[in-house]
TrEMBL record:
Occurrences of domain SpoVT-AbrB (ranges): 8-53
Protein name per UniProt: PhoU domain-containing protein
InterPro entries: PhoU, PhoU-like_sf, PhoU_dom, SpoVT-AbrB_dom
Pfam family, one: PhoU
Length: 331
């Protein structure tokens, strides 16, 4: 760490010199323009750069299916504006996978193709993205998926179950967008100014989005199990609905705490959400006891449903922990 003494020039202007090694490494010299980004009691300084798209290239030789999909998503979340995927010859299967992956990411489009490369570009401006709105939307979709998954199970509705599975893609798209913005805010202070979030708040939103994405994943798992099960006995169905209601209550209260502007209100709601996790655990034990009297195969699948609902409640508890940290006094 280097230190500099603040000088006063002209009687009213504070000046401080820049470390020469840093200036040289970042292309800063006499006449260069730098940007200052205030963040609480800190002041971040960066060189002003021309508005350039961040480009990245990835060799996808030998990548197929899920590996190729993950590669595209990783490049997107990492913050590249233009992504070039190249190989000696890109197969038709690889092109289909790339297009499918692109459709699952907010703002990403195919802008060019040859036999040796496919070029993608993020067409959205960071200032147009609202992390708050994305997380709020994730909350609605994830909790609705969970409710519909349980309804599909107890009512033996295969069409509703299939619809829940498809909606998981919507939550994933929003989560990847939040992850992209979060990493950009960490890397570039100017992005924080564009999206209106400081780094701590961006971290809190990203943590929250991760828990909601997991809730949606478990809603999808419940729906998949519903497609293999007949409607459960009435007593079990009633317990599953009660368990669902308790888990969603944790999530909703935790999200209210997360989005509350008043720190005292946020703390109260978050603590209530954390305490409500115990209600979920008690209902899990009651429901598991009912499953002992069922056919072993049915009991096993319903046990997975109970586990998913239990985990959904736990994820709500994790959101509550984040809300408590967000509401706590800043050191």
């Amino acid at each position: 760490m280097e230190t500099r003494k603040v000088q006063v020039t002209g009687g009213s202007t504070y000046t401080v010199s820049l470390p020469k090694d840093w200036a040289t490494a970042n292309g800063v010299s006499g006449g260069s323009v730098v940007e200052f980004h205030p963040e609480d009691d800190a002041l971040l300084l960066t060189p002003r750069r021309d508005e350039e798209k961040v480009e990245g290239t990835l060799d996808i030789t030998g990548l197929e299916g899920d590996q190729l999909t993950r590669a595209v998503m990783t490049m997107y979340v990492s913050g590249f504006d233009i992504i070039t995927l190249e190989a000696p010859r890109i197969s038709a299967g690889q092109r289909r996978t790339i297009r499918d992956a692109t459709q699952g990411l907010v703002g990403l489009e195919v802008i060019g193709e040859t036999s040796e490369h496919v070029q993608l570009q993020d067409l959205l401006d960071s200032s147009e993205l609202s992390v708050h709105n994305a997380v709020t939307r994730m909350r609605l979709v994830a909790t609705t998926m969970l409710a519909d998954a349980v309804d599909a199970l107890v009512e033996n509705d295969a069409d509703l179950a299939a619809d829940v599975v498809q909606r998981d893609d919507d939550v994933n798209r929003l989560y990847y967008m939040v992850s992209r913005v979060f990493r950009s805010v960490l890397r570039d202070p100017s992005t924080a100014a564009e999206v209106g979030l400081d780094r701590e708040t961006a971290f809190d939103y990203h943590s929250c989005a991760r828990q909601l994405e997991r809730v949606a994943d478990h809603a999808s798992k419940i729906a998949q199990n519903a497609q293999e099960l007949d409607a459960p006995p009435e007593a079990v169905a009633d317990e599953l609905r009660s368990l669902h209601d308790a888990a969603v209550a944790v999530i909703e209260r935790a999200m209210d705490a997360m989005l509350a502007e008043d720190s005292d209100e946020a703390t109260r709601l978050a603590n209530e959400a954390r305490q409500s996790v115990d209600d979920v655990d008690a209902l899990v034990r009651e429901t598991d006891a009912l499953l002992l009297d069922l056919d072993p195969q049915e009991a096993q699948l319903l046990g997975l449903v109970v586990d998913s609902l239990s985990r959904a409640g736990d994820y709500g508890g994790n959101i509550a922990e984040t809300a408590l940290q967000k509401a706590a006094p800043k050191p």
